[in-house]
Amino acid sequence: MGLINELHNDIEPAIKEYQKARLYDPKSIAVLKNLAVVSLRKGDIISALDACEESLKIDPNFISARMIKGSIYSSQKKYESAVEEYKKVIEIDPQAKDAHLYLGIIYAENKDYDSAIAMLEKLIKIEPNYVLGFYYLGRINAKTKNYAKAEEHFTKALEIHPNFLKVMEDLGLVYQLQKKHDSAIDMYKKILEIDPLNELAHNMLGEIYIKEEAYDKALDEYKKLSESLPDNVEVRIKMGLIYYQQKDLMRALEEFQLARAADPKNGKTIFYIASIYEEMNNYEDALDEWLKLLKIEPKSVDIMLHISQIYEKLKKLEEAIEMINRAIKMEPNDPKLYFYLGVAQYNEKRYTDAVENFKKAVEMEPENDTYHFRLGVVYEKLKEYGKCIDAMKKTLQLNEDHPSAHNYLGYIYAEMGINLSDALEHIMKALEFESDNGYFLDSLGWVYYKKELYDKAIEKLEEAVLLVPDDPTMYDHLGEAYFKINNYEKAKDAWEKSLKGEKNSAIEEKVKKANKLLRNKPRK
């Protein structure tokens, strides 16, 4: 009766029947084995083990009981006890295939890969067509990065069992790891012939096509997946990324929004939505998304810094500074935070405050050439030219190929009217790195101006304003050069363009002076 109940999945009645049977035949190891099995199915591990122990008292060589004990110990991660049981089984029956298999799996689980391989190789000698033996040998070799051997074992497993999906999936992955993309594609397509909705095959085909920049093919795979898994966030994200890569920002945004609908707190999705808004120059919406992300990751200094940069783009400099100060409270020993605070203060023209924070960054990370450079830049704004020169020299000491430092040093020398040969050398060095940099060309023109080479100065300054057409200082320099050659009309035009970019009383006086000279200029 117990067997009948068991066949009908009536576990409780089966247990009662087997317990009754024990009363009639207390030494029946078959009854005890059946009792152990149904107890295990019920989840009564203790009773299952007790039944096994009772049967082994009757017959210590009862393999079924030892196999059940081994499986229970293995599931409980009591690997030493499980190994002991499986070894005893092999002592009793050296041909016991399952004991060899499970022992090999336990060795692999405990990263004893040599013992695992040795055990599984014994298994396939016992049974040359034991598909699971080849499968696990393939997995272990893949785990130890012996991909050629893994491929060999998986291929053999498929010769025995051609439609073994798990083997096909793992062989596809091994092909990928060996960069055998054509073989991997063929394998995944075979999987999809058997299982058209196979998630791994569609995913892996998508990944391969992305690596090969076959984005339309990748999209096809993910679209098929999204039809069967419409709420799968990762699939939506991958589709969004492909559209993003193709610069189809609206389609990308649509996919990321669908991903968010399925999982509103997925930080990855919010990140991509924010990035798209930035790409579209929609900084207000981008800011909203970054602030949402900060709520999910409230201790992320990187997110705080990015938010501060968005605030700067929106000309909300106070909010930018406030956000960076919030980051500093989180990580007060991070020099880059003081650096970014200095940059924000510089942009707000709070030069004295910026100096203090750049100095903190330099003190904390004295070998960082960028920190010294930005300190020098703000010193130039404060007209502290000596300190600016020292900072630029330190920058070049740390990084002799820093073009902007070469340019600044040359420009400051020119501004001060000193070391003009050195100034020219530094600016020419900067132009070796960036020959079409308008700011560098302006500096070169200004050095020529200071050397009284006015025609050369005008040539370079004209090039500079073509490259940077909205810089007031460059137009001021150009006006000065034209004034020196008595071309008051062009001097006045240059200064008026300077005033369009920035009101400046000194330049307004220059315009008045040019107008006066033009009025007094004798007519031909």
Structure description:
- With 524 residues, the protein is an all-alpha fold.
- It has a domain at 436-524: Tetratricopeptide repeat domain (Serine Threonine Protein Phosphatase 5, Tetratricopeptide repeat), CATH 1.25.40.10.
- The protein is 79% helix and 0% strand.
- It has helices at residues 2-7, 11-24, 29-42, 45-58, 63-75, 79-92, 97-109, 113-126, 131-143, 147-160, 165-177, 181-194, 199-211, 215-228, 233-245, 249-262, 267-279, 283-296, 301-313, 317-330, 335-347, 351-364, 369-381, 385-398, 403-416, 420-433, 438-450, 454-467, 472-484, 488-501, 505-520.
- Helix 24 packs antiparallel against helix 25 and helix 26 packs antiparallel against helix 27.
- The longest helix is centred in the last third of the chain and has 16 residues, at 505-520.
- The radius of gyration is 38 Å and the shape is elongated.
Tell me the layout of helices and strands.
Elements: H1 2-7, H2 11-24, H3 29-42, H4 45-58, H5 63-75, H6 79-92, H7 97-109, H8 113-126, H9 131-143, H10 147-160, H11 165-177, H12 181-194, H13 199-211, H14 215-228, H15 233-245, H16 249-262, H17 267-279, H18 283-296, H19 301-313, H20 317-330, H21 335-347, H22 351-364, H23 369-381, H24 385-398, H25 403-416, H26 420-433, H27 438-450, H28 454-467, H29 472-484, H30 488-501, H31 505-520
Short description:
With 524 residues, this protein is an all-alpha fold. Helix content is 79%, strand content 0%.
